Amino acid sequence: MQNQTSAQPNPFNPLIVQSDRTLLLDVHAPLAEDCRNALIPFAELERSPEHLHTYRITPLSLWNAASAGFTGDDALNVLNSFSRFPVPQAVSFWIKDTCGKFGKLRLYQILPAEENNESAATAQEAASNKQNDDFADYLCLECASEAIFKELAAAKQLTDLLFVNKAFKNTFWVRLIDRGTVKQKLLQLGWPVKDEVPLKDGEKLEFELRTMCQSGKEFAVRDYQKNAAAALVGDKGPGTGFGTIVLPCGAGKTIVGMQIMSLLQTSTLIVTTNISAVHQWIAELLDKTSLLPEQIGEYTGEQKIIKPVTVATYQVLTWRAGQEDNYPHFKIFRERAWGLIIYDEVHLLPAPVFRITAELQTVRRVGLTATLVREDGCEGHVFSLVGPKRFDVPWKELECSGWIAEAECVELRINLPENKEIEYAVANQRQKHKIASDNADKLPIAKTICSIFPEDKILIIGQYIEQLEKIAKDLNVPLITGKTPNAERDRIYAAFKSGENRVIVVSKVANFAIDLPDASIAIQISGTFGSRQEEAQRLGRILRPKQRKARFFTLITANTVEEEFGSHRQKFLAEQGYDYRILKYTDDEQLKTDILEEN
Q1: pLDDT for 150-185, tens place per residue?
Q2: Are residues 359 and 200 in contact, defined by beta-carbon separation less than 8 angstroms?
Q3: Does residue 438 surpass a pLDDT of 50?
Q4: Which residues of 183-218 are buried (b: 16+ CB within 10 A; e: fewer)?
Q5: 483 CB-near residues (< 8 Å, 6+ apart)
């Protein structure tokens, strides 16, 4: 095989492709920004220091790209176009080989209408002879070659899941109830399944999207939101109706969900992160659709009402009395003939819910998320059980189009107080993080930032409740934590939106699915700082379109573990195309000068 190389390798190109499938992006090269955008569909950012950003191509990143129509040749064209040196032949071969695996396993169902033909009759006989079960309880897993068929037949992990189908060449029987489990196992073995089994239609539910919201504002679904919904729904035939849509916070993922509901016109179960998010979903549905209040149910710790459209929390679904007990609220998945399940913030889908999603492979389903990164490494479960990526748009592309706010990200480094230096030096790793995060000098600096921007609405976000209580008291502003009653929480959010409160302090409960469209500044004073999920959610709180620039400040204790965790934060922001400034705090006047110098 000849080398896959650029026609004319260019020493000024920004990308270096290495034989271990890592990609080095020179951020100072002329085409760096174009290259970064071109890598988004199929490569994952691993490190993002000042000069060279490191990406890696993985099987899952390629299969997610392939499921959205991005081919191996497309990936190679990107590499060849931007690479400074010839692309290693081994990398080219591996990309084509890995992408080529997508579609080599096809899961399908012999429909009743086909049962009159001879092969279907033979298949039915084979099924009943082998398992003594009803023909309709089985699916067919077709392998593209005998070599793949034999590889899977020899896999011990699949012994009790795949049964040789003698009626068709290189084909296995799969029990209908094992559909999700088989897809999981095969993905772990390096074989993604192209699922072409038809999905069941749920209860009919007729409604319309409004052109004028109940609030009086004009409403129209944006083109990219329509495209995202269309990519998921497809022609409603085999292989469509399930998958994941990746859009930045503030880009209107809720609207995409409603557009999908509108296209399908069916009963829908929506599962989201917390009660505030449940209430916001319900408010949006009533504001922007013709659905009536009596058609929408809330299934939370406060009330459990199931209606044609029901909005539930992950928390209530994963509740159980004891460690060994069953999850009683999983029954909601079977309470109605759901035609669609929407997993909001699917990157946070609790692991126990994967168990039920394996059973729900016959239902149309969509995961909505700003990032496919999961801190528990379960991206493969999302791919195989909820569905592969069907659509995404780079954050910066939407910013340039004006659909999300222009954002500036600043890390402000603050010295550790002298009286804490010895305590920090002798502490273990966990204690070091707490000492650095709880640096008392962060509080007056956060107040200073608030004073620099007197016209902005500001979120102060942190992890440690005592720290948050102090700053809320000093600023005389409301505080929201996990213990804040839901009614009080909703009242504070409403006052913030109306302008009654300009600043609110929030714990990590505000990471998830909270709509604060007028917030233009976030000040992060503490956090896990090792989570790209958290960074996506916190940045997303201020990205709703607005007239003024969004600013995202993170206060870090210099020369501590917080700096180390900062690399994860920078990785996420760089992945989305955001510039990242690091400032050293000296005094308030210098801080004001540094913050405003580029504005």
Answers
A1: 999 999 999 999 999 888 899 999 988 888 889 989
A2: no
A3: yes
A4: bbbbbeeebbbbbbbebeebeebebebbeeeeeeee
A5: none
